[in-house]
Amino acid sequence: MAESIIAGLLRGKLVEAARIVGSEPRADRRAELTAQYGVRMVASNLEAARDADVILLSVKPQTLTKVGHELGGHLRPDQLVVSIVAGANCRVLTNLLDHHEVVRSMPNTPAQIGRGVTVWYATPEVTPLQTDQARVLLRALGTDLQVEDERFVEMATAVSGTGPAYVFLVMEALIDAAVHLGFPRHIAHDLVIETLEGSTAFAKSTAQHPAVLRNMVTSPGGTSAAAIHELESGRLRTVLSEAVWASYRRTVELGADLEKGLGLDEGRPLDTGNGRAADGTASKASTGRQPGR
Ligand SMILES: NC(=O)c1ccc[n+]([C@@H]2O[C@H](COP(=O)([O-])OP(=O)(O)OC[C@H]3O[C@@H](n4cnc5c(N)ncnc54)[C@H](OP(=O)(O)O)[C@@H]3O)[C@@H](O)[C@H]2O)c1
Questions:
Q1: Is the pLDDT of residue 288 over 70?
Q2: Does the predicted TM-score (pTM) go above 0.85?
Q3: For the chain, N or C: smaller number of CB within 10 Å?
Q4: Ligand 1 cavity residues, CB under 6 Å
């Protein structure tokens, strides 16, 4: 993901390569990134962060605490930290780094071709200038949506962050079904990819509700009606909803694990942001404001 951000920043001529410093433990990978993008790569996170205006945290959640301890206490208020680490909430980030100017974001993998969508939240301490810097950085990945309630980032993890995994699974299943019917695999692949891409572009250009578009192709007693009956019998909607909830609970759990590791848990119930605690029991919180309002 960090490489996608570097590529996007350079592609959009938003930052000069000479102004980007990356840290990476493996020497061969450092050499590879310098050769490909002309950016300076170092082994030390502290060295990479020292003179930076914006520090991007793009490590796995299990590596975050180690990296955070290296940086903690060494950051200045004029430095902005942007994290894309799944589950790492602002409470974890600000405590771990001993730093308040933090943006928590959730991109997704189409970011690799500049077609991602990123939902992000800035702590109240983030200045207008830093907000603009975060926006420039995250727009290098595609579309961005700033939200005023951090819980929307958690929810986005389960919808758009994990979303490509749902779509790829559907893609794979449709390709396999087409092969089962008798199509050669490469034709099955192209038919499915073009259908998904065309349907998405059509839905986007007409701005119609998906149910309206679906009804257009569902003739009485026809082929689509027969197929949709099978999908509904197989509980497709319920299964998708359960998958989104499972991903959401896992996001909240990752945050709780990180909080526990830092001694921040204090036994408070985890709020899943939808009036339910992470274990499914009722909690008092509600979703609050809509994204971006
Ligand atoms: N992939 C996604 O779809 C996606 C979407 C949204 C958010 N995210 C979040 O983005 C973050 C990065 O994900 P990713 O898929 O890009 O993972 P990744 O490919 O494993 O990237 C993590 C990078 O961190 C480096 N690293 C490991 N230990 C380090 C250390 N101590 N100091 C500095 N760098 C270190 C790794 O180097 P080595 O390769 O040498 O180990 C690797 O280059 C994760 O927190 C994930 O939750 C990912």
A1: no
A2: yes
A3: C
A4: 1, 23-26, 29, 45, 58-61, 63, 66-67, 84-86, 106-109, 161
